[in-house]
Amino acid sequence: MWLGEARVPTGMRLYAIGDVHGCDDLLVEVHAKIATDLTTQPCEAHRIIHIGDYIDRGPDSAAIIERLSRMSATDERVLCLRGNHEQMLLDFLADPVANGTIWLNNAGDTTLESYGIDAGQWRDNSRHMIKIAAQFAAALPVDHRDFLNDLDYTARFGDFFFCHAGVRPGVPFEAQDPFDLIWIREEFLASDIDFGAIVVHGHTPQPEPDVQPNRINIDTGAVLGGRLTCLVLEGNTHRFL
User: Fold this and answer.
1) Residue-number span of the structural domain to which 231 is assigned
2) Which helix (H) or strand (E) holds 26?
3) Residue 186 maps to which CATH number?
4) What are 98-109's pLDDT values in tens digits?
5) Tens digits of residue pLDDT in 169-197
6) Torsion of CA 193, 198, 200, 205, to 10 degrees
7) DSSP per-residue codes, 99-137
8) Which of 59, 62, 37 has the alpha carbon at shortest distance from 48?
9) Residue 92 falls within a domain, yes or no?
10) How many domains does the structure of the chain reveal?
């Protein structure tokens, strides 16, 4: 299945939002643009798909989790997928000694700060990691933690498959390793094979949306000074907000 041939289910419009990384102001703006788009161009049905990496790097991770947990709990048309940064947070809570360094090295301290926790000059030692994790577990609202634990890895509508990072070439969608779905890069990005559906993903920031015959990358580096991209799919067409 190649872009141009791929179709969304009849009567449905899909909005897919790229990596947010703590930029709540941009997320609010994109949601407003979606609302305007739906008002000016009504459709029978729609879905809003967030493809992961809501936290870390930017200043407002807690606000984003609050917003998305509330939206997805009250509107079944709002879907949120799991990114590698959400997984690193969960891994840190599960075992801070084993997983603290990788998360904090990937800007986990900015998420801690958004929940009122100062990691300070964090140190790679067991006592300090356990202390930070305990403070974070106490500060993290139950509904936020439930939201993070319940994040799906994938979604599919018609000829479009959504995940955070990509897929391993040659492996059926239903057999993909969750690790690859949130972490893969080179093997996926370099592949020119037909995956069986157009893969919509983020994870690897680009200056502009990267539209290829077999995939669309919508991570445009919002937290790096770029835009927060929203891909709009309808029928066999695509456009961007």
Assistant:
1) 12-83+154-240
2) helix 24-40
3) 3.60.21.10
4) 999 999 999 999
5) 999 999 999 999 999 999 999 999 999 99
6) 40
7) HHHHHHHTTHHHHHHHTT----S--SSHHHHHHHHHHHH
8) 37
9) no
10) 1
What tokens does 93 get?
């809570």
Residue 140 located in a structural domain: no
Residue 77 lies in a domain: yes
Do 238 and 231 touch, CB atoms closer than 8 A? yes
Please report whether residue 148 resides in a domain: no
Residue with tokens 């907000």: 241
Q: Which among 49, 81, 230, 75 has a CA at the least distance from the CA of 157?
A: 49
**Apex 180 CA angle, 80 and 27, nearest 5:** 30
User: What's the pLDDT score for residue 120?
Assistant: 76
Torsion sign across C-alpha atoms 194, 200, 204, 207: positive
Report how far apart the first and last C-alpha atoms of the chain are (Å, whole number): 24
Residue 12, amino acid: M
Do the beta carbons of residue 171 and residue 211 sit within 8 Å? no
